[in-house]
Each structure stands twice: as structure tokens, then as C-alpha cells.
Input
Amino acid sequence: MVNDLADLLRESAASAPDDRLDTDTLLAGGRRRVRRRRLGVVGGTALATAAVVAATSLLGAESPPPDLVAAGVPAPDAPTLRLADAVAATEGEDYRILASHTNENLNRDNGQYFDGVTDDGRLLFRDGPRLGQRFPRFALQDPATGEKDWLPDLEVEAQTSAVELGTDRLVLLSGRGGMETTTLVAHSFDRTAREWTSTTWPDLPRVDAWFGAQVGPDGRLYVPVPATQGQPPEGGWPTSPDGDAEDADAEGDTYRLWSVSLTDPADVRDEELTVGSLAFTDDTMVWTDSTNGAAGQVHVRDLATGKESAFDPRSGERCNLLSFGAAGDKVVMGQYCGTYDGGVRDDRVQVLDTDGDQVTTLQGSGVEGSLTSVGGEGIVTITSYERGGAGTYVYDLGTNELLRISDEVSSWATSGPTLDGQFLWNTPENGNAGMTQHLGQLVD
Output
């Protein structure tokens, strides 16, 4: 859980890779306990950034998978997939690896990472910050050749998140300020002029780090500003069978939605809308009533006509919304729905269409997933720590096919936005002290 998260961070390593991480960023990711040391931010919705050792008891592939039915885990109200339904993917036939990069020992120092893919197919490559290097360096890497075009220096000490990786402009977000709220900063790189500019907005309220901020189809940056925060029940959370605090069916958090121009610091607009999680497709805006707890309804707005609709996602009585995304006519909700007998978890990745019809729900114990490729039909990347099923899986929203890509789980996690049909994943190196990050693409 995030209880005493600062203590977890201090205990995770004698010399953590990057001790400049903002605790607000950690808390923004949700109440669910952190499983991996996270070095980056997942595209679509921003997730936690942390440095916490993985729950190694979940990594063993020798034990049989948990029996969800015997543990009393309820069945979703939807067509359901389990990890055992996945097809073992073959490299070269089902997918191909476009690029890989290895960090041998991230316990010793921060490393180098893929932070996403630009619209013209270049990897945003980040180096550091690290010992003796105060600021990160960025490059655009050709996946085919590995050649790197190093960008001019950007002097930013905070963690960054890529929210736009266009052919003309790159936009990274960071925060500046205290532990509870922060001033949002956008760092824009003009790829033609090869210049960075940094923008803040004096009239924009302070935010929870940069949790959930994203660029809409109109080119504006949409920023959730804290409104209400769910509170533990009187007397604190009950204890689940595995000894953790049990926060299933928690009260969610809400945000007031603002938008800003990425080029004009004076252009700040209160959208007069309260949201939980937020996502965009090319022609719709999709949001929930709340997040980091019970999601409430899902709302869909047609950006051309302004017409709105809403539906009950029927997620389950105890489900907390932890990740959210939309692509085409699909909505993807990553959820934690409680812990049952023997410490068996009810983890779900629920897929619906924008009319509220159930497409499928992937259910497991020790599973987390989110929409990571939003181009075309979209791809959901799933990480599993489930006994007998650990590894990385991808679910293709276009074909409804679930593929198992790997049977290893790294204790480090980085990710970022990718192009249609692409996905990022990590495998362990050097006894889990390091990791190899891969960029893959499904084969048609």
C-alpha cells in the first residue's frame, strides 16, 4: 500500500537510482500497493513513479496459478479472459522486436530508458539523471539503426512525462513546488528550430504533480486540478487476508478540469467539469465520475457536436479504478477489486465500448494493465505477477487476441506512448538488479 511509502522508498536500496522523485507523483498513482520499482510514467494516464522492490513471491513460475473460484473471487459481469487463455507469442511470427536497451545495474545508479515513440517512429531516449549528471539528456533514436540525435540540454531536475511526441513538437511535463501540490511546467521542443521552451501558467491552480494531464485533439493541455479526495473509513482500513490494508471499494478522488494553451501562458480556461480519470480519442472525450476508488459512471462527449452520454460500466461492487484509457470506440479500465482467501487478488482489466457494452474483462491475481498504444484500435499491455503466469501480455483491441510475450517480470518498470500496433515491455537482467527494455510491434 502507499502507507508509509517514504519508508518503503528509503528501505528499497542503499543508493536509489534517482532520489529526486516527487512523493506526490507516488501518491497520484492510486492506493494499490506498489509492486515494482518504477522509473517512468505510463502513457495515457499517469501512473505511480517509485523505487520499491517487487513482491518476489509472485514471480515464481513453478507453482500452479491461484484458483480464483475456490478463493471466492466473484466473476465479472462480462465475457472473461484469464491468463491461461493467452496464446504464447512467437517472435518473428506474432511480433517483432524493433529495439532493445539494457541497464545492467539500476541499484547502483540511474540509467537510460525509452520514454515513448514519436509520430514519425523515433524513440525518445532518456539518459539519467545519474551520479555526476544533474540533468537528464534526451535523444531521438532511430529504432532500426540505433543512431541517436541528441537534443539540446534541458535543465530540469524533476521527473518528466511525455504528453506529446509529434513530428513537429515534443512536450514533456514536470512539476515544481511542494509535497502536496505543485506548479505544472511544460517543456516544449521545436523539432525544426531545435529549441526548448518552458511554460507555466500563473492563473492555473496548483496540481497533484502532473497526474492525468494530457493533450487533447485540439492541441490544448487538459489538466485535472484536485477537488475532493477519498478518505479511509473511521478506524482505518480493514486488513485483507494477505496482511495488507484492504481498500477495495474505496471512495474515489475527483478533479476540476482545466485546459491551457501550450504556447500562451495567459490562455487558461476552467472547463467547468468535474472528472475522475480522463482520456481522449480523435473525436471523443471520455471520463469517469471519480478515480483511485469507485469509478462511478463513464461519460462520453462527442467533440464535434458536444453531445454527451453516460453509462454504468458494471465493474463490480468492490472495484477501484487505477488506470484508464480510450482508443477508437473502446474504453479500458484497470482495477483492483479486493483480496480473498489465501491472499488471492481480484485484479481486472475491463474493456467496454463507448456505448457501455461489455467487450471483455481480463481477470487474475497479481495483474495490472493499461492502454499503452492508442493509435488505430489500441493495445493493452498487461504485467502479471500471478503464480504460474508471470510475464508480459498484450491484448489487441482490434482482434480481441491475448498474447503472452514473456514469462519473466522485471522489478523495474518504464513505459510511454507508442504508435499503432506497438508496445513497450521490460525483462529482468543481472538477478533483477537491471532490466532490458524492448519496443515491439505486432505482426499483421
Observations:
- Confidence is low (pLDDT under 50) at residues 1-61.
- Helices lie at 5-12, 23-28.
- The CA atoms of residues 43 and 417 lie 5 Å apart.
- The chain has one domain: 5-442.
